[in-house]
Design goal:
Number of strands: 13
CATH architecture of the largest domain: 3-Layer(aba) Sandwich
Structural class: alpha/beta
Distance between the termini: 33 Å
Helix content: 25-40%
CATH class of the largest domain: Alpha Beta
Number of helices: 8
Shape: elongated
Strand order of the largest sheet: 2-1-3-6-7
Mean pLDDT: 87
Order of helices and strands: EHEHEEEHEHEHEEEEHHHEE
Bound molecules: calcium ion
Largest sheet: 5 strands, parallel
CATH topology of the largest domain: Rossmann fold
Length: 232
């Protein structure tokens, strides 16, 4: 999951970034409204964490701007102001949730997961696809009821496929979902992750769509064939 983090306090921002990385969120940190505008135009974010007091203005004005433009990405406001009227202003401005600083990282993670669930129209955490089951909170992946251990990047990649089960995802889109704006991307890394996913979850878990990219295998094909080196 991609998080756009708009926070000018670098200590808070690096704390959030390090904390969320543990939960496999890919965080794109920016410190100003201007940087946030260009990030929103260039990266696709699943959720936004927005500080209000920023060097070039109030985060709330940016949120109102986005909502007027029809950008409906879930937004959680971080605020030092615990005034009731400030909270109401935030929610009326289009925020989906808020947290008052200082806050507990586990609570932030729980709220982000709740926002993502709501945005996906799901009421429960687990994502099922054929015999594959992914719990984004516990990070547990099972295939036909058996636990499968995935690396952080493999899980992020699998989640991108599960978010758009019928879509062909281009190599560029998949790389964007795996890496933050400032991350170095090794040229062959994506192929390696896909190879590992197929080895661990069966070769049909991801289809290659020639010249276009990759797509999640159809639910009835996922898990029925070779797994973990077994031959078909
Ligand atoms: Ca601030």
């Amino acid at each position: 999951m991609h998080v756009l983090l708009i926070e000018d306090d670098l200590l808070v921002a690096s704390g959030i970034q390090a904390g969320l990385a543990v939960y496999d969120f890919v965080v794109d940190p920016v410190a100003t409204l201007t940087a946030a505008r260009s990030a929103m135009a260039s990266v696709s974010s699943d959720v936004v964490i927005l500080d209000r007091g920023l060097p070039d203005g109030d985060g709330l004005s940016l949120l109102e701007e986005w909502r007027e433009a029809g950008i409906d990405v879930p937004v959680l406001i971080l605020t030092a102001r615990d005034d009731v009227s400030d909270r109401i202003a935030g929610l009326q401005g289009g925020a989906d949730d808020y947290l008052i600083k200082p806050f507990d990282l586990d609570e932030l993670v729980a709220r982000l997961h709740a926002l993502l669930r709501r945005a996906a129209g799901r009421s429960r955490d687990k994502v099922m696809h054929g015999s594959l089951c992914v719990d984004p909170v516990s990070r547990e992946v099972t295939m036909e009821g058996q636990l499968v251990v995935l690396s952080r990047r493999e899980l992020v990649l699998l989640e991108s496929f599960l978010k758009a089960p019928r879509s062909v995802l281009s190599i560029g889109q998949l790389k964007d979902s795996l890496y933050g704006m400032h991350d170095e991307v090794e040229s062959n890394a994506l192929n390696v992750h896909i190879h590992h996913l197929r080895r661990k979850l069966g070769r049909d878990v991801i289809e290659t769509v020639r010249g276009l990219g990759y797509r999640l295998g159809k639910p009835d094909a996922v898990g029925r064939f070779s797994r973990r080196g077994q031959s078909r």
